[in-house]
Specification:
The protein has about 400 residues and is α/β, with parallel strands linked by helices. It contains 14 helices and 12 strands. The longest helix is centred in the last third of the chain and has 33 residues, at about 330-360.
């Protein structure tokens, strides 16, 4: 099937859609990416930490949450629009930061920025991008956030934050779960290193853009040498003192840390286990979400990343109190398969599926999605009289 793609004279779909056949869901891009990418690159994107239990659980946990759809509601008009930190977006589906996107496709972060902008949603650019904040800003208008790793050299951090702000980025997503890099065994086996011709573009001028070949993972060695293990809550305050951008704390999994994040002046929280790449055997993010939402007490929005592959997953996250979700791996896999068009298709498929889930659940706007639209393993059985004490 060619779909919207043009047919050439030979009847072959352009844009490489021929070998892909008709893609009907987000997960199908992973197998195509695996075929196309060098093993070292695919493994870097796909793998998780150690036993990869949390990697599987990030997906599996969604399948244990079921719907309680409401019927006979006029769903002829469905509104998926929302605001994030005051910015209006077309849907609560945004792009998470993923590193080194030019390993997936020559257009890398440029393609991601354009696809996000076309879909009317937010892209988060990784600190470890293979395109700089200025280059990404040059792709045109769009709401963009900047993911920040805090380096030992705080001048480097301050400079980077200033550059992001000057380039029109609207918020900082501060990654707080990586004082050290998780043990990703395929990166160790593959001796992962940034492929020739690519650099961590934001650090190029600071002589921190190169990653040396190491006996294990080149990235793990880079992190050990450069990333600040002393990072603590006081640094969130320090960050606020050097920028007017709101700060999202990315990597919260407990109610305790949600409360401290709010007290520390965070503008929002991202429930994240770093795509299951840091500490294995932490819960899936969808299982940790409700606890974090309760801890935040409605004082800041709570977002989620990790394991979202379907519109049904988006609905489940919102029903559990998320203000929106971020997707990571689906972006790099679809980028590898089909460049900007791939990412556009992923965003469109998730949007369409989410809209359908809303309609079939009887919700016409995000505010109508409630906790009563889902049932989880930890819910008390319904319809039984309350026990007498």
């Amino acid at each position: 099937m060619c779909g919207a793609e043009k047919k050439s004279k030979q009847g072959i779909c352009e844009k490489g859609s021929a070998e892909m056949g008709e893609i009907t869901n987000v997960s199908e891009y992973q197998a195509i990416a695996k075929e196309k990418l060098p093993k070292m690159v695919y493994d870097y994107y796909a793998s998780g930490a150690e036993d990869q239990w949390t990697l599987a659980e990030n997906r599996n946990a969604f399948s244990r949450i079921l719907f309680r759809p409401r019927i006979l509601i006029d769903v002829s008009k469905i509104d998926m629009a929302t605001t994030v930190l005051g910015f209006k977006i077309s849907m609560p589906i945004m792009i998470a930061p993923t590193a080194m996107q030019k390993m997936a496709h020559p257009d890398g972060e440029y393609a991601t920025a354009r696809a996000a902008s076309a879909a009317g949603t937010i892209m988060t650019l990784s600190s470890w991008a293979t395109s700089s904040v200025e280059e990404v800003a040059s792709t045109g208008p769009g709401i963009r956030f900047f993911q920040l790793y805090v380096y030992k050299d705080r001048n480097v951090v301050a400079q980077l934050v200033r550059r992001a702000e000057r380039a029109g980025f609207k918020a900082i997503a501060l990654t707080v779960d990586t004082p050290r890099l998780g043990r990703r065994e395929s990166d160790i086996k593959n001796r992962f290193v940034l492929p020739p011709g690519l650099t961590l573009k934001n650090f190029e001028g600071l002589n921190l853009g190169k990653m040396d070949q190491a006996n294990d993972s080149g990235l793990a060695s880079y992190v050990a040498g450069q990333i600040d293990r002393t990072l603590s809550w006081k640094d969130v305050k320090w960050l606020q003192s050097i920028t007017s951008m709101p700060i999202l704390v990315k990597g919260v999994l407990t109610a305790e840390d949600a409360r401290i994040a709010v007290q520390s002046g965070a503008a929002g929280i991202i429930v994240s286990n770093h795509g299951a790449r840091q500490l294995d055997y932490v819960p899936s993010t969808i299982m940790a979400l409700e606890e974090v939402v309760k801890g935040a007490q409605g004082r800041v929005p709570v977002f989620l990343d990790g394991g979202v592959r379907r519109g049904t997953d988006v609905f489940k996250a919102l029903a559990l109190g998320a203000a929106g979700i971020f997707i990571g791996r689906p972006v790099v896999f679809s980028l590898a398969a089909d460049g900007e068009a791939g990412i556009r298709k992923v965003l469109q498929m998730l949007r369409d599926e989410f809209e359908l889930t809303m309609a079939l659940s009887g919700c016409r706007s995000l505010s109508e999605i409630t906790r009563n639209h889902i049932v989880t393993e930890w819910d008390a059985p319904r319809g039984l009289p309350a026990p007498r004490l």
